Amino acid sequence: MKSILKTYRFPLILLLSIVIGSLIGFTEGKDAAVLKPFGDIFLNAMFMIVVPLVFFSISSAIASMGGVKRFGKVMGSMMVVFLFTGVVASVIAMAGVKLYSPSKGVNIDLVKPEDAADKVSLGDQIVQTLTVSDFSELFSRNNMLALILFSVLMGVAVSMIGEKGKPFANFLKSGSEVMLKMVSLVMYYAPIGLGAYFAALIGEFGPTLLGSYFRAVLYYYPLAIIYFFGFFSLYAFMASGKEGVRHFWKNMLSPSLTALATCSSAASIPVNLAASKKMGVPHDISETAIPLGATLHKDGSVMGGVLKITFLFGIFGHNFSGIGTYLLVLVVSLLVGMVMGAIPQGGMIGEMLILSLFGFPVEALPIAAAISTIIDPPATLLNATGDNVASMLTARLVEGKKSMKETVMKLGEQKGA
């Protein structure tokens, strides 16, 4: 019993703080918003760390991969995993729609949003997502994918110049270790920050769940729970068997609670990196897959994309049937999952993409935006924690089944000792 309490002490403290915060939110309602600044301190601290952490972790991981060949294998395997889990999430979501229509009987008044919302073209958005016009703009979480691409190029360049790059590679590795230590220091404040955030979250959005969007909640939340426990366990088993499942869930409480409280994939990156290390994922794989996954791998957003599309289908009387429709929804939901930024409420671009591709009027934008707000916590839970199991699957493809199982078994022996 003492060993269990020692192992799970900090996650249990986090869980207790969130329960207390949720109770405060339920009892105090919107007055609980007074606690939000305490949660903002924690969230801002994580955002403060995430930019240098992403740079150092990705650059050092690629620089230490031992050549472009391994880098190519890791990246190729990672993209296969991202696409595979995204397709599974989309298919599961569409099957759920067939069993339970989230828009049946819903009556929502359309409110026309500001005209500026539809002035950003898809081409301009791609340019703004992948690149920045000035080096200083890389140091912002709003340009996360541009920062990731820069970090990848930096790591590849260091690896390609061989011996001359080793001093710089050591600097990058040292920087990565320093940033992870900073994360551990910030996490001492996590119980206060997460508790306060949950109090404000429940106090503000609790009543909303009882309104016109309740059918969407009844559709998405149970489906997210099934995917979280069922399919993540399946993926962990595919990666390294029963031991992989055990080590995955043993280390997932802190990342899960962080994702739920902050509603941010980016803020969850530091905690995910620490957890993946304990799961036995090689550092060069986890430190590439997790930061990149925060932008490109979002099973929760894919499922949310299916919900938004089919919700609008029901409101506007479109027929959700036929292979062509299913394939189109599959592709669009994958795109929605990839273009959404790794920041809270970052789905506006994905929602505009849905409107433009399916021909919905711009007045439908607030409907999709409201759904994003309501499903944000469980969607972020799937988005962020899914990066850990994706890193395990990537390691399985890169290292092989035997190697991954041996690594996980060694971890179990070390813990037992």
Automatic annotation (TrEMBL):
| SUPFAM superfamilies reported for this sequence | Proton glutamate symport protein
Any idea which UniProt keywords this protein has?
Cell membrane, Membrane, Transmembrane, Transmembrane helix, Transport
For biological process, the GO terms are: dicarboxylic acid transport
* Record-linked Gene3D superfamilies: Sodium:dicarboxylate symporter
The UniProt transmembrane annotation reads 45-68, 80-100, 144-162, 183-206, 218-238, 300-317, 323-343, 355-375
* Annotated GO MF terms: symporter activity
Q: Which GO terms describe its cellular component?
A: plasma membrane
How is the protein disposed in the membrane? Answer: Multi-pass membrane protein
Reading the lineage from the top rank, the first entry is Bacteria
Q: What InterPro entries does this protein's entry cite? A: Na-dicarboxylate_symporter, Na:dicarbo_symporter_sf
Which locations, inside or outside the cell, does it occupy?
Cell membrane
This one is known as Dicarboxylate/amino acid:cation symporter
Q: What is the lineage of its organism?
A: Bacteria, Bacillati, Bacillota, Bacilli, Bacillales
